[in-house]
Recover the amino acids of this structure.
């Protein structure tokens, strides 16, 4: 599972985090991101039609690697997998959710915000973690700090990151990619402004890694 996550993260420096109200836009949105150089997309389960959006991407833009985000309860794991998600992302990880993720058939990138949470997840067998909310939790300084004591962990920091702050995260040796909503702002997604999204995505895809 970690191999899948590491390979997916290696495909592009940024995972766009998208919140989709209208599933009819989902496949074109994902195809736009893939064409611009961002093949991995996290669809947050924060809207009533989010699972339909994942389903639409899995069928209509199969070249995209679609992850289901904002998974907060065990029952959502199977729902996301059934809809066609190939991976799970969580904002934080309760013990009950960690148990379910450890047993899940699809790879999971569980969220953490402290060293103790990261250690607990590592004990459970996870080594590719989401740091969330990254900026508020300590940003690049936190990531550099944890690299010494826990060198085998890898992170996808997300939360409060944009095109300006992303390079400092990507320069951290334990960062595999960053996530964020700045590539797909809700206003552009709602309007279906795929040209503007493609411009933001191309900029994000060109961000230098450390
Ligand atoms: C997430 O679920 O990962 C966050 O909502 C990311 O949001 P941000 O990039 O706007 O901080």
């Amino acid at each position: 599972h970690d191999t899948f996550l590491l390979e997916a993260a290696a495909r592009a420096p940024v995972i766009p985090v998208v919140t989709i109200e209208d599933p009819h836009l989902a496949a074109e949105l994902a195809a736009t991101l893939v064409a611009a150089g961002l093949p991995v997309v996290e669809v947050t389960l924060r809207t009533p039609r989010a699972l339909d959006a994942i389903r639409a991407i899995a069928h209509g833009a199969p070249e995209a690697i679609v992850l289901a985000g904002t998974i907060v309860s065990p029952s959502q794991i199977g729902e996301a997998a059934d809809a066609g998600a190939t991976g799970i992302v969580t904002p934080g990880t309760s013990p009950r959710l960690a148990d379910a993720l450890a047993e899940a058939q699809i790879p999971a990138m569980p969220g953490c915000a402290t060293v103790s949470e990261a250690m607990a997840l590592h004990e459970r067998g996870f080594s590719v973690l989401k740091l969330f909310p990254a900026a508020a939790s300590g940003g690049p300084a936190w990531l550099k700090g944890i690299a010494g004591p826990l060198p085998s962990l890898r992170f996808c920091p997300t939360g409060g990151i944009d095109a300006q702050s992303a390079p400092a995260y990507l320069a951290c040796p334990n960062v595999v990619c960053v996530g964020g909503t700045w590539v797909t702002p809700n206003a552009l997604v709602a309007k279906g402004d795929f040209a503007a999204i493609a411009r933001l995505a191309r900029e994000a895809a060109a961000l230098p890694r450390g």
User: Anything to note?
Assistant: The chain has eleven helices and nine strands. The mean pLDDT is 97.
